[in-house]
């Protein structure tokens, strides 16, 4: 993922958020700059209707993993 330009990286993150929203989830990205054991700096998936964390409890999901999560659900 480091090989992506900043524009492509932002587009991929936006796509991950759109895919999640289409399935009734919120893909939130950590805003914290200092990483820790409980904050990996990535995404967390929250089901909007129940406000429960579905995946990425420690903000460990990448944008690609968010997209893949829903691709598996659709299959």
- Low-pLDDT runs of 5+ residues are none
Largest sheet: 3 strands, antiparallel
Main sheet: strand order: 1-2-3
Radius of gyration: 12 Å
Q: For the residues shown, what is the average pLDDT? A: 90
Residues in β-strands, percent? 15-25%
Shape: globular
Which oligomeric form is depicted?
A: single chain
Verbal overview:
The protein is of the alpha+beta class. The protein has 2 helices and 3 strands; from the N terminus they run H-E-E-E-H. Helix 1 packs parallel to helix 2 (63-74). It has a 3-stranded antiparallel beta sheet with strand order 1-2-3. Strand 2 (43-47) and strand 3 form a beta hairpin. The mean pLDDT is 90. The protein has one domain (6-74).
Short description:
With 75 residues, this protein is an alpha+beta fold.
Keywords:
single chain, 75 residues, alpha+beta, globular
List the helices and strands and how they pair.
Elements: H1 6-22, E1 25-29, E2 43-47, E3 52-55, H2 63-74
Antiparallel strand pairs: 1-2, 2-3
Helix pairs in contact: 1-2
């Amino acid at each position: 993922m480091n090989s992506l330009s900043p524009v492509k990286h932002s587009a991929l993150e936006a796509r991950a958020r759109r895919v999640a929203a289409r399935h009734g989830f919120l893909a939130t990205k950590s805003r914290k700059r200092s990483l820790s054991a409980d904050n990996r700096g990535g995404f967390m998936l929250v089901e909007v209707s129940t406000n429960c964390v579905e995946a990425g409890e420690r903000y460990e999901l990448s944008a690609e993993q968010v997209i893949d999560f829903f691709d598996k659900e659709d299959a």
